[in-house]
Amino acid sequence: MSLVMVIEDEEAISMLLSYNLEKEGFEVAVVANGMNAVSEIERLMPSVIILDWMLPEISGVEICKLIRSKPDIKNIPVIMLTAKSQEEDKIKGLGAGADDYVTKPFSVPELMARVKTNMRRAPLFEEKEKIITFEDISMDLVERKVKRGENYLHLSPTEFRLLKMLLKEPGKVFSREVLLKSVWGENIFVESRTVDVHIRRLRKSLNQYGPDYIRTVRANGYAIDKNALAEEDDIDEA
Q1: Residue 48, domain CATH
Q2: What pTM did the predictor assign?
Protein backbone atom coordinates (compact mmCIF):
# COMPACT_ATOMS: atom_id res chain seq x y z
CA MET A 1 0.00 0.00 0.00
CA SER A 2 1.49 3.38 -1.03
CA LEU A 3 1.86 6.08 1.63
CA VAL A 4 0.76 9.66 0.98
CA MET A 5 1.94 12.29 3.46
CA VAL A 6 -0.33 15.32 4.02
CA ILE A 7 1.49 18.32 5.50
CA GLU A 8 -1.39 20.61 6.44
CA ASP A 9 -2.19 22.58 9.61
CA GLU A 10 -5.92 23.01 8.94
CA GLU A 11 -7.58 20.01 10.58
CA ALA A 12 -10.72 20.15 8.41
CA ILE A 13 -8.64 19.93 5.21
CA SER A 14 -6.33 17.21 6.51
CA MET A 15 -9.34 15.15 7.59
CA LEU A 16 -10.99 15.63 4.18
CA LEU A 17 -7.80 14.56 2.38
CA SER A 18 -7.20 11.61 4.70
CA TYR A 19 -10.73 10.30 4.21
CA ASN A 20 -10.58 10.50 0.42
CA LEU A 21 -7.03 9.16 0.12
CA GLU A 22 -7.87 6.17 2.31
CA LYS A 23 -11.01 5.60 0.24
CA GLU A 24 -8.71 5.42 -2.82
CA GLY A 25 -6.64 2.73 -1.09
CA PHE A 26 -3.71 4.82 0.14
CA GLU A 27 -2.10 4.79 3.56
CA VAL A 28 -2.02 8.34 4.95
CA ALA A 29 0.27 10.16 7.37
CA VAL A 30 -0.68 13.68 8.50
CA VAL A 31 1.85 16.22 9.74
CA ALA A 32 0.41 19.45 11.13
CA ASN A 33 3.63 21.18 12.15
CA GLY A 34 5.96 22.21 9.35
CA MET A 35 8.98 22.10 11.65
CA ASN A 36 8.57 18.32 11.96
CA ALA A 37 7.87 17.75 8.29
CA VAL A 38 11.31 16.88 6.92
CA SER A 39 12.20 14.50 9.76
CA GLU A 40 8.85 12.72 9.30
CA ILE A 41 9.42 12.45 5.53
CA GLU A 42 12.85 10.90 6.16
CA ARG A 43 11.36 8.49 8.69
CA LEU A 44 8.30 7.37 6.69
CA MET A 45 9.52 7.80 3.08
CA PRO A 46 6.10 8.53 1.53
CA SER A 47 5.39 7.91 -2.14
CA VAL A 48 3.79 11.35 -2.63
CA ILE A 49 3.65 14.49 -0.46
CA ILE A 50 0.71 16.94 -0.42
CA LEU A 51 2.24 20.10 1.00
CA ASP A 52 0.36 23.19 2.17
CA TRP A 53 2.05 26.48 1.29
CA MET A 54 0.89 28.43 4.37
CA LEU A 55 2.19 26.63 7.44
CA PRO A 56 3.10 28.07 10.86
CA GLU A 57 6.79 28.73 11.54
CA ILE A 58 8.07 27.55 8.13
CA SER A 59 6.43 27.83 4.72
CA GLY A 60 5.70 24.98 2.37
CA VAL A 61 8.06 26.58 -0.14
CA GLU A 62 10.95 26.34 2.33
CA ILE A 63 10.03 22.75 3.19
CA CYS A 64 10.01 21.90 -0.51
CA LYS A 65 13.50 23.38 -0.90
CA LEU A 66 14.72 21.29 2.05
CA ILE A 67 13.21 18.14 0.52
CA ARG A 68 15.02 18.78 -2.77
CA SER A 69 18.32 19.34 -0.93
CA LYS A 70 18.37 15.91 0.73
CA PRO A 71 19.57 12.97 -1.41
CA ASP A 72 17.40 10.30 0.26
CA ILE A 73 14.10 12.15 -0.24
CA LYS A 74 14.72 14.58 -3.09
CA ASN A 75 12.89 12.46 -5.68
CA ILE A 76 9.60 12.15 -3.79
CA PRO A 77 6.84 13.97 -5.76
CA VAL A 78 5.48 17.07 -4.04
CA ILE A 79 2.03 18.53 -4.78
CA MET A 80 1.79 22.09 -3.47
CA LEU A 81 -1.63 22.92 -2.02
CA THR A 82 -2.35 26.63 -1.55
CA ALA A 83 -4.83 29.48 -1.62
CA LYS A 84 -2.32 31.51 -3.65
CA SER A 85 -3.54 31.49 -7.24
CA GLN A 86 -1.47 34.18 -8.91
CA GLU A 87 0.84 33.06 -11.71
CA GLU A 88 3.93 34.39 -9.92
CA ASP A 89 3.02 32.29 -6.88
CA LYS A 90 2.71 29.19 -9.02
CA ILE A 91 6.10 29.92 -10.58
CA LYS A 92 7.60 30.37 -7.11
CA GLY A 93 6.18 27.06 -5.90
CA LEU A 94 7.34 25.13 -8.95
CA GLY A 95 10.68 26.91 -8.77
CA ALA A 96 11.13 25.61 -5.23
CA GLY A 97 10.87 22.06 -6.59
CA ALA A 98 7.14 21.25 -6.44
CA ASP A 99 6.01 18.76 -9.08
CA ASP A 100 2.42 19.98 -9.16
CA TYR A 101 0.34 22.89 -7.89
CA VAL A 102 -3.31 22.84 -6.73
CA THR A 103 -5.18 25.92 -5.53
CA LYS A 104 -7.82 26.05 -2.79
CA PRO A 105 -10.72 25.50 -2.99
CA PHE A 106 -9.87 22.33 -4.86
CA SER A 107 -11.75 19.51 -6.52
CA VAL A 108 -11.23 16.32 -4.53
CA PRO A 109 -11.50 13.99 -7.58
CA GLU A 110 -8.98 16.16 -9.44
CA LEU A 111 -6.54 16.10 -6.52
CA MET A 112 -6.87 12.31 -6.21
CA ALA A 113 -6.12 12.03 -9.94
CA ARG A 114 -3.05 14.23 -9.54
CA VAL A 115 -1.79 12.08 -6.66
CA LYS A 116 -2.04 8.98 -8.84
CA THR A 117 -0.42 10.72 -11.80
CA ASN A 118 2.53 11.95 -9.75
CA MET A 119 2.95 8.55 -8.17
CA ARG A 120 3.25 6.99 -11.64
CA ARG A 121 5.72 9.64 -12.73
CA ALA A 122 8.06 8.94 -9.83
CA PRO A 123 10.04 5.89 -10.99
CA LEU A 124 10.01 4.01 -7.71
CA PHE A 125 11.09 7.28 -6.04
CA GLU A 126 14.69 6.14 -5.86
CA GLU A 127 15.13 4.56 -2.50
CA LYS A 128 18.62 3.12 -2.40
CA GLU A 129 17.02 -0.29 -2.24
CA LYS A 130 13.73 -1.37 -3.75
CA ILE A 131 13.70 -4.83 -2.17
CA ILE A 132 15.23 -5.98 1.13
CA THR A 133 15.69 -9.72 1.59
CA PHE A 134 16.76 -11.83 4.53
CA GLU A 135 16.68 -15.59 4.23
CA ASP A 136 13.11 -16.31 2.99
CA ILE A 137 11.74 -12.86 3.97
CA SER A 138 11.31 -10.29 1.19
CA MET A 139 10.25 -6.66 1.74
CA ASP A 140 9.20 -4.53 -1.23
CA LEU A 141 9.79 -0.89 -0.21
CA VAL A 142 7.92 0.49 -3.20
CA GLU A 143 4.78 -1.66 -3.07
CA ARG A 144 5.10 -1.80 0.75
CA LYS A 145 4.51 -5.54 0.76
CA VAL A 146 6.19 -8.31 2.73
CA LYS A 147 6.44 -11.96 1.74
CA ARG A 148 7.75 -14.98 3.58
CA GLY A 149 8.46 -17.63 1.00
CA GLU A 150 5.42 -17.44 -1.28
CA ASN A 151 3.12 -16.06 1.41
CA TYR A 152 2.19 -12.40 1.77
CA LEU A 153 2.11 -11.07 5.34
CA HIS A 154 -0.51 -8.62 6.54
CA LEU A 155 1.47 -6.14 8.65
CA SER A 156 0.35 -2.87 10.18
CA PRO A 157 2.28 0.27 9.15
CA THR A 158 4.13 0.19 12.49
CA GLU A 159 5.06 -3.46 12.10
CA PHE A 160 6.26 -2.74 8.55
CA ARG A 161 8.55 0.04 9.79
CA LEU A 162 9.87 -2.11 12.63
CA LEU A 163 10.66 -4.99 10.29
CA LYS A 164 12.29 -2.64 7.79
CA MET A 165 14.63 -1.31 10.45
CA LEU A 166 15.62 -4.80 11.60
CA LEU A 167 16.11 -6.08 8.04
CA LYS A 168 18.34 -3.14 7.10
CA GLU A 169 21.01 -4.35 9.55
CA PRO A 170 20.69 -8.08 10.28
CA GLY A 171 22.37 -9.13 13.49
CA LYS A 172 22.42 -5.63 14.97
CA VAL A 173 20.65 -5.28 18.31
CA PHE A 174 18.35 -2.25 18.42
CA SER A 175 17.38 -0.96 21.85
CA ARG A 176 13.75 -0.16 22.61
CA GLU A 177 14.68 3.52 22.83
CA VAL A 178 16.24 3.54 19.35
CA LEU A 179 13.26 1.68 17.89
CA LEU A 180 10.84 4.12 19.52
CA LYS A 181 12.69 7.14 18.20
CA SER A 182 13.05 5.75 14.68
CA VAL A 183 9.64 4.10 14.23
CA TRP A 184 7.31 6.29 16.29
CA GLY A 185 9.23 9.58 16.09
CA GLU A 186 10.91 11.83 18.63
CA ASN A 187 7.94 14.02 19.48
CA ILE A 188 5.42 11.27 20.22
CA PHE A 189 5.08 9.93 23.76
CA VAL A 190 4.90 6.14 23.68
CA GLU A 191 5.94 3.81 26.48
CA SER A 192 8.98 1.68 25.68
CA ARG A 193 7.01 -1.49 26.39
CA THR A 194 4.85 -0.67 23.36
CA VAL A 195 7.79 -1.90 21.28
CA ASP A 196 7.45 -5.33 22.89
CA VAL A 197 3.78 -5.51 21.93
CA HIS A 198 4.47 -4.73 18.28
CA ILE A 199 7.48 -7.06 18.14
CA ARG A 200 5.30 -9.85 19.51
CA ARG A 201 2.69 -9.20 16.79
CA LEU A 202 5.37 -8.97 14.11
CA ARG A 203 6.92 -12.22 15.31
CA LYS A 204 3.53 -13.92 15.26
CA SER A 205 2.95 -12.85 11.64
CA LEU A 206 6.41 -13.91 10.48
CA ASN A 207 6.37 -17.23 12.28
CA GLN A 208 3.23 -18.45 10.52
CA TYR A 209 5.41 -19.53 7.61
CA GLY A 210 8.85 -20.30 9.01
CA PRO A 211 11.28 -20.31 11.93
CA ASP A 212 11.68 -17.42 14.34
CA TYR A 213 14.41 -15.01 13.24
CA ILE A 214 13.70 -12.23 15.75
CA ARG A 215 16.18 -12.42 18.60
CA THR A 216 15.25 -10.93 21.97
CA VAL A 217 18.22 -9.65 23.96
CA ARG A 218 16.93 -9.17 27.47
CA ALA A 219 17.41 -5.68 28.93
CA ASN A 220 18.74 -4.54 25.55
CA GLY A 221 16.37 -4.93 22.62
CA TYR A 222 15.83 -6.86 19.41
CA ALA A 223 17.67 -8.07 16.32
CA ILE A 224 16.87 -10.18 13.29
CA ASP A 225 19.26 -13.12 13.11
CA LYS A 226 19.04 -16.49 11.35
CA ASN A 227 20.53 -18.11 14.45
CA ALA A 228 18.05 -16.47 16.80
CA LEU A 229 16.85 -18.37 19.82
CA ALA A 230 13.56 -16.68 20.60
CA GLU A 231 12.95 -15.83 24.20
CA GLU A 232 9.56 -15.12 25.64
CA ASP A 233 8.92 -11.40 26.04
CA ASP A 234 8.04 -10.74 29.65
CA ILE A 235 4.76 -9.01 28.88
CA ASP A 236 1.29 -10.29 28.24
CA GLU A 237 -0.02 -10.81 24.74
CA ALA A 238 -1.66 -7.62 23.50
Answers
A1: 3.40.50.2300
A2: 0.54
